[in-house]
Amino acid sequence: MRRRLALVTAALAVAGGLPALASGAADGDLTALVNPLAGSLGPGFVTVGAGVPFGMVTPGAITTTPAGDDPVNYVGYAYQDPQIRGFALTHFSGAGIHIGGELPMMPTTGDTTSSDPANYASTFSHADEIAQPGYYATTLSSYQTRAELTATSRVAVERYTFPATQQANLLFDVSRDNDGVKTGTFHLADDRTVTGSVDVPGSGGITMWFAARFDRSFSSSGVWADHGAGAGGWVRFDTTSDRVVGVRVGLSYVDAAGALGNLQAEAPDGTSFDKVRQQAQSAWNDRLHAIDVQGGFAEQRATFYTNLYHALLMPTTFDDADGRYLGFDGVTRQVPTHTHHYTDLSLWDTYRTQTPLLTLAAPDVAHDVGISLLDDTDQNGGVIPKWVRGNRDYSIMGGDSGTPTLATLVTDGALTGADAKRAYAAMLHQAETAAGPRDDLGVYLSKGYIPYDVSDRGAAVTLEYAIDDAAVLALAHRYGTEQDVVEFTARAESWRNLLAPDDHFLRPRMSDGSWATPTDAGVTKLWNPIFSDGWQEGTGWQYLWLVPQDVAGLRDALGSDAMTQRLDEFFSSAGENELAPVVPEAQTQASLFGVYYAGNQYTPANETDLQSPWLYDWLGQPAKTAQIVHAGAQVFNTTPYGLPGNDDAGTMSAAYVLSALGLYQAQPGVDAWELSTPMFSSVVVRGVGHAPALTINAPGAGPTAEYVAAATIGGKPLARPWLMTAEVSGGKTLSFTTSPAATDWATTPAAAPPSITDHSG
């Protein structure tokens, strides 16, 4: 999503080494396998904090440089930065924009003379830094102060060990976040309590309230500004005899009372830091055990659980401990008992991988995400939002990504009965309303595509709309009318309107029907699919494969042999050697930090390419899918360079997890999971607190046996490279006989996964 850093090669990543695995992993403590710092250097931009799964607060360090804020430190923590300027309550994991980092506090010693982080930021060392699920610790070298962080869902619990001094301070830089200085409020409520708020602009803006309660009284305190830009202040302690200062900070998006209520409900006076840390670790261990894998190398298991961890950081709990949350319409509402309202929904990214993964690994969250999205829609004038933060749609990226999200949640069983019908009604209304994510609907329907002279990313949005329409079609077969089926079958094939008859590439078009040619300073150039003209975050080569709903139609239009040849070229580096980087380093560097994309090969750093390795399943060549999927996994590891691109709320991490399981769901709303061999000999998917939903046995699976010789599901022979949802979630066992060489398993035309073309003629 937006401004992506260039992909690093697997060779560079592996050169960084892998962390030693903690001994606890052997006795069922999966948190010992996780390195939260993986992906924090380079393009990953992951959250490095101490939150619990899907927690409202994610307390963590905000890093910087002596020259000022690092321009490519988008989410608060960047491994390359040498200084820390505070510990913030919020993070948005993996975003390629400056976001999050609200309500930072900074421990210092000595006189408090400035509110400028440039004057009080401290150096730190990775050598004494600890990052674990639910716990973060580091030493601020400038102040010889140890900072330790943990959390409940809505409360940051922090412990600072100062040197012996009469001037141990906590600075509240409440109006600063990762995108600059905002407006806020700061109030010294009593000699142990600080309260305040920050306003976050964008799409109407949101407000966050906090309440910080210390375990002892201040010796003194001060205020820089009690409201407005730069609001903040400080509190001071005498640590000459007791060097430890503890603080608990409640957060709320509803009001000041909500912040205090969350604090009192989850971490009242007397709360033990060590007990909260233990509970946070236990919460993570429970979530990670939603998928148990055995076999493979120790480093593979660590990579798997590190990515599963990152995939389960978000979305974010939005409701307070009393169940209140602020609706899209500004009205305070109440969630039913034992459910949550979720925010931080980066749907353009997550609908492709993280949403289907949630239906497997966290079905309770998947259900509540669906209800949250439907409630947001009702409160948003019937418009399904596509990129939610707080109670606002920031409307980032193109397409109507809430629609495929809801379709997947219905098809995968997270939304059923009346909730599923409600989802279809919302999707149908959205697909017929030129507003919000569908604001280009009029021209799309009249011409069958969005012209380049209407939008310079119109071709990309056309393909997204076609996927969105296919998602509506998928549910129309169940809940719609015959007319709905006919209409959305045609609309889902709108990708064909961009297929150029000469070179058979998908290509931007003008309003008059002509094929678009780019201009540079008024000079007309020849359009070439190796460039990103007319596309968004990708080239014509990379967008050629963004037709997951009609791969059979694309195959027939290009010709099976021609499509195979192009895919082979697209994956040429990986096809030559699965242990090599998936794409040449020069190719991966061509995105220029995501400003411009160029090239004709696969980049696993961006969402538009994620489904492409699985397209061989439609070409009767599932062995190539297995080869490419296994090759692509090599760019993920547990080093700071461990992610190939922006994690985008867990999207890239979820792509790895699904690949390691040998599962992918390319078509939102379609009852099909594409298959490859898993990277482990044994997999048990159970969600949390459930009996096994799917068991996968693949003796010998790994780099020397990545192909399928035979397969069974529920003890019956399986001759197709895909499963239906009932087979994935019905408690059955999928068994593979693996092979070191490609075989003829699932290579017949009848074995291909479904496509719109199968039913449109």
- What's the CATH first level of the largest domain? Mainly Alpha
Give the mean pLDDT.
Answer: 91
Radius of gyration: 26 Å
Total number of distinct structural domains = 2
Strand content: 15-25%
CATH topology of the largest domain: Glycosyl hydrolase family fold
> How many strand segments?
36
Q: Globular, elongated, flat, extended or rod-shaped: what is the shape?
A: globular
Identify the strand order in the major beta sheet.
5-6-7-8-18-14-13-12-16
CATH H-level superfamily title of the largest domain: alpha-1,2-mannosidases domains
* CATH architecture group name of the largest domain: Up-down Bundle
Quick synopsis:
With 761 residues, the protein is α+β, with helices and mostly antiparallel strands. The chain has two domains: 48-288, Beta-galactosidase, Chain A, domain 5; 291-694 and 751-760, Glycosyl hydrolase family fold, CATH 1.20.1610.10. Strands 5-6-7-8-18-14-13-12-16 form a nine-stranded antiparallel beta sheet.
Account of the protein in words:
With 761 residues, this protein is of the alpha+beta class. The chain folds into 2 domains: 48-288, Beta-galactosidase, Chain A, domain 5; 291-694 and 751-760, Glycosyl hydrolase family fold (Up-down Bundle). 27% of the residues lie in helices and 20% in strands. The strands form 10 sheets. Strands 5-6-7-8-18-14-13-12-16 form a 9-stranded antiparallel beta sheet. Strands 19-31-32-36-33-34 form a 6-stranded mixed beta sheet. A hairpin with a 5-residue loop joins strand 13 and strand 14. Mean pLDDT is 91; it is low at 1-26 and 574-595.
